Amino acid sequence: MRPRVEIVFQIVALDLIERVIPAIGPSYHQGTVGMIANLLAIVSEEWDRAASRRIEENDRLRELFRQAAPAVNDPVLRSRIFQLAKTGDRDFRISALENNNCALRAALIELHAHVESQTSAEARKVEDAIWDELAKSTERRRLLSAQF
Amino acid sequence: MASLEAKLAEYIRLRMPAAAEVRVDGLEQVSGGASRETYRFRLSYQDRGQARERRLILRRDPSASLIDTDRRIEFAAYKAFFGTSVPVPEVLWLEDDASHLGSPFFISVEMSGLQTSPARLLMEPYASHHQKIGEQKWSILGAIAAHDPAKLGLVGVMEAVEPGQCWKRELDYWEGVLDSDELIPQPIIRAAIRWMRRNPPPAAQKVSVVHGDYRTGNFLFDEQGRIHGILDWEMAHLGDPLEDLGWSLNRVWCWAHDDRRGGLLPRSQAIEIWEKASGLKAAPDALHWWELFATVKGQGIWVSSAHAWETGANKDPILVLSSWALMNSQDRAALELMGHLG
C-alpha cells in the first residue's frame, strides 16, 4: 500500500491534534479525539514492525525451549516444550503470529514456574535465559511515547 | 443532553423540596476518571426569594468501566475526608436508584478553574511548581495514611482487614482479575506474582484508608501550584498505607519521561515527605513489595480495560489507549523492580 500505512496514520494523527482538536468545542470531545489520535500514532509505530517482532520473538522462544527441555523434570511439560520448539510460523498474518506467540508465552509461564522450583545449575541457567528473553520482549514492544 | 438536564432538575427538586424554580443547564461531559461518566452542570434555584447558583458535578455509572467499583464507598470516602487536611470536593447526593438517570450516580460540588491533566502539569506555569506540588502531593498522601478510619466513620463502610492480611487480600483480588480478563499471557507479571507469594511483606504498621489510585492526574491543582482536591476515590479501601505509596511511585506515572515520580519529585524525596506526614516508616523491603504489587494491579487494570472493550460492553477509546500505551511500560516497571530489566 502506498503511501505507506504507518506514515498515513502518523500524518492523520498529527492532523487530528493540530487542526481538528482546536476546532472542536466541548473538552470531552477534544479528549476523545486526542485519544483516537494517540491510538493512530501507536498503530503507526507498530504497523511496520508488527510481523517481524512476533516472528523474531517466536523464534527466540522456540530456541529457548529447545535448550531448556533437558532441564525440565516434569515429563508432560518437557514433552510440551519439545513439541512447541518444533513448531514454526507459516501463516504470516499478524493474528496468526499473535496466536502462536500466545501459545509460546503461555508455555513460557509454565516453564518459568517449573525452573523456579528446581535447584539445579541447569534450572538457574534456564531461568536466566527466560529473564533475558523477557527483558528483550519489552524492548521489542517499546513505544516511543512510553513514559518508561 | 437536554433530556439529561431535565431529569437532573427533576431529581434535584426531589432532593431540595424547599427550593423553587430549580433549573439545570450547561450540562457538559468532561474527562473525569475512567470508571464513571462525569458531567459538569449549573444548578440555579430560588431559596426563600433569593436567586442561587451552584456549579456541580454528576458522576454516573457507565455500562462497563475500566475499574469495577462501588460508588457507595467512593461517596463515603469523599464525605469522610471533606473538611479535613485531605482536600476533597463536597459531595451532596448519592443515588442507587437507576430509574432517575438511567444508572446510579452521585453529585458533588465542582471545584472550578483547576487542572488535573498530567500533560498540563508539564507546561508552564505549572512546570515551575513541581517541587511545591510534589511536596503537597505526598504530604496529603501521608495525611490520608495518618487518619484513623474509625474516626472518619469508614469502618463498616469499607471491608475490614487484619494488618497481616492486607497484602494477601489485594494480591488475590488482582490475580483474580488477571485470571478472568487477560487476553494474552502475561509472563512478567505472573513471575512477579509468584515472587510476591514466596516473599510476602511484613504486616501493615496500621490499617488505614487506602485511596487506591493516588497519582498525578487524580488531583486538582492551580496556577500557583496548590493542590485543591484529591479525586477518583473509586478504588478506596482499608489496607496497608504502603499500598498507596507504592502505587504513587509506579514508573508508569513518570509523565516527564525521567526518574521523577509522578513527573514531580525523585523517589527518595517523595518517600521522605510521606514518612514525615504519615508518621510511618517505609521500610525498603516492605515498600519494594508494594511497588511490585503496583505493577500487578496496574497490569490488572490495563488487562481488564482491554477485555471490557473487546467483549463489547464499552467502546470508549480510553480502554484501548490505556491498555496499548501502558502494558509494556508496566512490564518494564516490574522487571526493573525484580532486577531483570538489563
| Alpha carbon gyration radius of chain B | 20 Å
**What kind of oligomer do you see?**
heterodimer
Pattern of helices and strands of chain A: HHHHHH
Please state the structural category of chain A.
mainly alpha
Structural class of chain B: alpha+beta
User: If interface size is counted as residues with C-beta under 8 Å from the partner's C-beta, which chains form the largest one?
Assistant: A-B, 35 and 33 residues
- Mean pLDDT across residues of chain B: 94
Approximately how much helix is present in the residues of chain A? over 70%
Percentage of residues in helical conformation of chain B: 40-55%
Largest beta-sheet details of chain A? none
Shape of chain A: elongated
Residue-averaged pLDDT of chain A:
96
Instruction: Enumerate how many helices of chain B there are, as a single number.
Output: 10
How would you describe this structure to a colleague?
- The complex is a heterodimer of chains A (148) and B (342).
- With 148 residues, chain A is mainly alpha-helical.
- Chain A contains six helices and no strands.
- In chain A, helix 3 (50-68) packs across helix 4 (75-85), helix 3 runs antiparallel to helix 6 (121-141) and helix 5 runs antiparallel to helix 6.
- The longest helix of chain A has 23 residues, at 94-116.
- Chain A is elongated and about 65 Å long.
- By secondary structure, chain B is of the alpha+beta class.
- The model of chain B has no long low-confidence stretch (mean pLDDT 94).
- The longest helix of chain B is centred in the last third of the chain and has 27 residues, at 284-310.
- In chain B, helix 9 runs antiparallel to helix 10.
- In chain B, the strands form three sheets. Chain B has a five-stranded antiparallel beta sheet with strand order 1-2-3-5-4, sandwiched between helices. A two-stranded antiparallel ribbon of chain B has the order 6-9.
- Chain B has helices spanning 2-15, 71-81, 118-121, 130-146, 166-181, 187-198, 241-248, 267-278, 284-310, 317-337, and strands spanning 20-30, 37-47, 50-60, 91-95, 105-109, 208-210, 219-221, 227-230, 237-239.
- Chain B is globular.
- The chains are: A mainly alpha (148), B alpha+beta (342).
- Chain A binds chain B through residues 26-28, 31-32, 35-36, 38-39, 42, 98, 101-102, 105-106, 108-109, 112-113, 116, 130-132, 134-138, 141-143, 145-148, and chain B through 28-31, 184-188, 190-191, 194, 251-255, 257, 317-318, 320-321, 324-325, 328-329, 331-333, 335, 340-342.
